[in-house]
Amino acid sequence: MTGPIAGSLDDTALERSAMRRIGWRLVPFLILAYFVSFLDRVNVGFAAIQMNHDVGLSATVFGWGAGIFFLGYFLMEIPSNLMLERFGARLWIARIMATWGLISAAMALVQGPWSFVGLRFLLGLAEAGFFPGVILYLTYWFPSAYRARIIGIFMISIPISSFLGSPISGALLNVSGFGLAGWQWLFILEGLPAVLLSVAVLWMLPNGPRDAAWLPAAERDWLERQLQAEAARNTQRGQTEKPSMWEVLRDRRLALFAAIYFGSTASSYGLSFWTPQIVKSFGLGNFETGLLNSIPYGFASVAMILWGRHSDKTAERRWHLALSFLILALGLAGGTVLSGLGPVVAALTVAAVGVYMLKGPFWALATEQMPPAAAAASIAAINAVGNLGGFLGPYLIGAIKDGTGSFTLSLVPLVLFALVSAALSLVPGRTARPDQGAARPSTA
Q1: Which helix (H) or strand (E) holds 429?
Q2: Which residue from 2, 31, 7 is spatially nearest to 230, judged by alpha carbons?
Q3: Where are the transmembrane segments (predicted)?
Q4: How far apart are the C-alpha atoms of 4 and 35, rounded to whole Å?
Q5: Percentage helix, strand, coil for the chain under 3-state DSSP, each rounded to 5
Q6: Distance CA 250, CA 192 (A)
Q7: Which of 25, 398, 427, 440 has a CB 3.0–4.6 Å from the CB of 59, allowing a cystine?
Q8: DSSP assignment, residue 8?
Q9: Of 118-122, 277-281, 341-345, 350-354, where does mean pLDDT reach its minimum?
Q10: What is the gyration radius of the CA atoms in the chain, in angstroms?
């Protein structure tokens, strides 16, 4: 899962052992948690196949409701991450998971446009802080030289949630009983696992290395020395005190990274919320739609890990990020001009590969360049502002679909967002590798 930072033989042995132990102890559980999180966030795309007809939702209203999740997410993102830093990752992540699971299950109660929009907004409020909280949490455990691959491995839960969740969600649409339709059972059965996992968080996730009884003292000491030395190198020219919120928000780097991420989320969630309906429009059944919808995410899962590992190995972030956006734009552009089920699925596959390849390099670059003293607030702010793209992207697709009757034309704005983000990806200044003077990590 990891590779060494060069040092003495003793330090190298401690490093290998510590990174392997931490990786296998924490990352699989975090992958599972984010798998459930993302599934609960995007399963509305499958529910819409039945729900829109049953409760009377137009494409525009569905796009508005699917996207308004991110408005609630935006409003609570920074406060949630600051509370995580105050109360500890263990308690706060458990709280987030319990509340989002209950609200996700409550989506089965939707009766019309207002209840749909309202519950999606509440779901955004509840889930806010989970993803940036985990990104912040990973910085407590992994030096920067490991972050692109670790973030890539953690975020593989996103494409996997669509790869595995698509056929499951498609099959659940055929479930009925106790007076509930398939889309209602989908929300209930996919929401409850988050509530159960929230209990497991309380004993699976220590707040930090000092609280990890399973981490040997020598490995804990090595890790703390490494992270402290890294913080000293990366801190803004002698800044040791935590900056005010206003100082964090005024940082031009934050605005730049948020703008880059905006293009990613607009495309990512536009695809997640609407791809099931695009595929279904070719006349397929629910289960067949689920199987075909999983294809792009299978390829994206592999590309995501390999690209993050290559970014770490070459110590390069900007071009890895820009090229990912260009691949995304190419796939989306193909979706606007191609016709037929096979070509459209192929184009969507290219787009999905691009949108997930960029995740590891992006967050590695952002956490390397933002000041460590402001990590909690800056990561949350980038994610919060960037995720507004998750509101605009799905809404534009729905509005254009209603206005033109075409799904393919609705992808045009996403192409433009991806191209702008590709150009912005080359703006961040070149920075020295966080482990200056160290050998590049091997590709384990």
Answers
A1: none
A2: 7
A3: 26-49, 55-75, 87-110, 116-138, 150-173, 185-205, 254-271, 291-307, 319-338, 344-366, 373-397, 409-427
A4: 28
A5: 80, 0, 20
A6: 40
A7: 398
A8: -
A9: 277-281
A10: 21
Closest residue by Cα to residue 277 from 27, 47, 6: 47
Are 417 and 261 contacting, i.e. CB atoms less than 8 angstroms apart?
Answer: no
- Please tell me the pTM assigned to this model: 0.69
Write the DSSP assignment of 252-271 as a string of letters.
HHHHHHHHHHHHHHHHHHHH
- Say if CB 89 and CB 200 are below 8 A apart: no
pLDDT attached to residue 145? 78
Helix (H, G, I), strand (E, B) or coil at 38: helix
Assign 177 to helix, strand or coil. strand
Which DSSP letter does residue 372 get?
G
Q: Where are the alpha helices (DSSP H) in 208-315?
A: 217-234, 245-250, 252-280, 286-314
Query: What per-residue string of b and e applies to 343-367 under the rule 16 or more CB within 10 Å gives b?
Result: ebbbbbbbbbbbbbbbbbbbbbbbb
* CA 292 to chain centroid: 22
Tokens of 127: 């889930």
Structure tokens at 251: 């940082």
364-411 tens-digit pLDDT: 888 777 766 566 667 777 877 887 887 788 778 778 877 877 767 778
CA atoms within 13 A on the CB side of 408: 15
Q: How far is CA 297 from CA 28, 36, 288, 326, in A?
A: 19, 16, 15, 18
In angstroms, what CA-CA distances link 138 with 93, 151, 268, 329? 13, 8, 23, 30
Alpha-carbon gap, residue 252 to 317, rounded angstroms: 19
The Cα–Cα gap between 105 and 424 comes to 39
- The DSSP secondary structure of 369-397, one letter per residue, reads HS-GGGHHHHHHHHHHHHTTHHHHHHHHH
Of 110 and 227, the structure prediction assigns the larger pLDDT to 110
Whether residue 30 contacts residue 154, with contact meaning beta carbons closer than 8 Å, is answered with yes
And the tokens for 131? Answer: 């993803």
Q: CA 440, CA 444: separation in Å to the nearest integer?
A: 12
Helices (H) and strands (E) in the chain, counts: 19, 0
Query: How confident is the model over 78-96, as pLDDT tens digits?
Result: 788 788 878 888 889 899 9
Strand partners, 177: 180
